[in-house]
Design brief:
single chain; alpha+beta; 4-stranded antiparallel beta sheet; elongated
């Protein structure tokens, strides 16, 4: 016998499948490396400088996949509300759905048409989950991120970019040939920057004119609107949060 939350669960499962497809596409994008690193010498300042060149932008398909993921997750929440209303002996309306609001005034003025018919306990739970409880930090709430991405995807493709995520420290770098640097020399490492043609990654004060960076460069495929978190990690986090919310309503059935 089917459980009333099964349609929501299937939506979440599909979102996870699409997130896995995204992760696979990202790995394909990395091979071969989507850029090269060129180094040259700044004679005026006495710095060896490394820059990104021959940068390849990520496929538009990645943005499409993220849009599909957030659509299924957002839809899973709406499916849950529909079932909450029906299981309470009421009839859902054409405005029924899971409300997501950044301010309490907006929530209280519009919640009725969205959740009319759910039990008092379910209504209290839905209100407790609202982003407005985080105050000015509501944009960090997983539900607000989900809502924002889903609304954006309805009107335009979600923009995907690649970010250099920063070297963790000078000691982690290796050069060929080995780099000679004096104690106290000027070193500037980019903490986080988009992979853009000509972007400077690193500059070091040295008399040495040539040294290539060895090993992998730390990168992440990110959403332009959420550049601090790898997109695949963000999707996993949103899927996990959505699943927890959906399952929290299981006692209602």
């Amino acid at each position: 016998m089917r459980h009333r939350l099964d349609s929501s669960r299937e939506k979440i499962a599909r979102a996870k499948e699409l997130a896995a497809a995204f992760d696979s596409a990202v790995k394909d994008y990395y091979l071969p490396a989507p850029f090269q690193i060129r180094h040259d010498y700044d004679e005026q300042r006495g710095h060896l400088v490394w820059r990104l060149v021959n940068c390849k932008p990520p496929s538009l398909r990645l943005g499409v996949l993220v849009g599909e993921v957030v659509h299924h997750l957002r839809s899973a929440l709406d499916h849950a509300v529909f079932q909450l209303i029906e299981s309470n002996g009421k009839t859902p309306g054409n405005k029924s759905g899971f409300p997501i609001f950044s301010d309490v005034k907006g929530y209280r003025s519009k919640r009725r048409k969205m959740i009319r018919g759910v039990s008092a306990a379910a209504e209290a739970r839905i209100e407790l989950l609202q982003p407005f409880h985080k105050g000015a930090a509501f944009r960090e709430h997983p539900l607000w991120i989900l809502q924002n991405l889903n609304n954006t995807d309805k009107h335009r493709l979600l923009a995907i970019t690649v970010a250099f995520t920063g070297f963790s420290g000078e000691g982690t770098l290796e050069f060929e040939p080995p780099l000679t640097v004096s104690h106290g020399a000027f070193v500037k490492m980019m903490a986080r920057t988009p992979v853009v043609e000509g972007e400077e990654l690193l500059r070091i004060q040295t008399t040495q004119r040539r040294a290539a960076i060895k090993g992998d460069i730390p990168l992440a495929v990110v959403l332009e609107t959420f550049p601090k978190e790898a997109a695949v990690d963000l999707m996993g986090r949103l899927a996990g949060e959505t699943s927890l919310i959906v399952e929290s309503f299981a006692p209602e059935f």
